[in-house]
Design brief:
Elements lengths: L4 H6 L1 H4 L5 H10 L1 E5 L5 H11 L3 E5 L24 H12 L4 E5 L8 H5 L4 E4 L4 H14 L3 E7 L2 E7 L7 H4 L15 H19 L8 E6 L4 E6 L12 H7 L2
Parallel strand pairs: 1-2, 1-4, 2-3, 4-5
Antiparallel strand pairs: 5-6, 6-7, 7-8
The chain binds zinc ion.
Length: about 250
Amino acid sequence: MDLSLSELERYKTQMLISGWNVEGQKKLKAASVAVAGVGGLGCPASIYLTTVGVGRVLLIDNEKFELNNLNRQILGWQEDVGKFKVEVAREKLKALNPEIRVEAIVAEITRDNVHDVIGDVDVVVDGQDNWRTRFIVNEYCVTSNIPFIHAGVSSLHGQMTTIVPGEGPCLRCVFPKDPPEHREIPVLGATPALFASLQVMETVKLVTGIGRLLVGRMLFVNGEEMVFETVEVKRNTKCPVCSSPQINANTSN
Ligand SMILES: [Zn+2]
């Protein structure tokens, strides 16, 4: 997959990063990344996935922009209130970088449709605001051997980890019991923006092979105290999601 002259120009500055080069950019062009949920995390994540040159960005969300989303869901502008988030996002992202493919699916991810909706991608970025859907996506990613970059935010706080099936714990290893769901989560827009940036960094590292991933580690950020902490997280050998014989067989190859 060659790069055009305009792509070489567009991505010139990032290709200077050590270990990236034209080869890394070609890998990004060949990559397909799903953004599961186009809200506070998914909007900035999809913007940076678009500008970095991921070849195919798949946006999945079933909601329309509401006025109270606009403090953080930065692809939604005043005129977009009442429109489907993924359709608004697709148009803006295509205008931002016409070299890539942006696809939009209006759907709520469920256990029944997750296979069809996400399908065959290289990475899934967690843009969910509820644990029920996160665990569905986690299970799909583990069984399909797709890396899943989890992030969750609240207020000025958040956590994230990168799940690479077979290489480290999955989300269920880390959270054996469902954390409590909140209907309305307090959020400062800058918090998901921070985590979305980190999710894109992990995506780029996964695809290009540069750096050390956040696998087996959970990053916690406390923005009130401005403390960043990384804690080791381990795989649960009895995890109902990632310890099945099928998964172990896949990862021994
Ligand atoms: Zn697990």
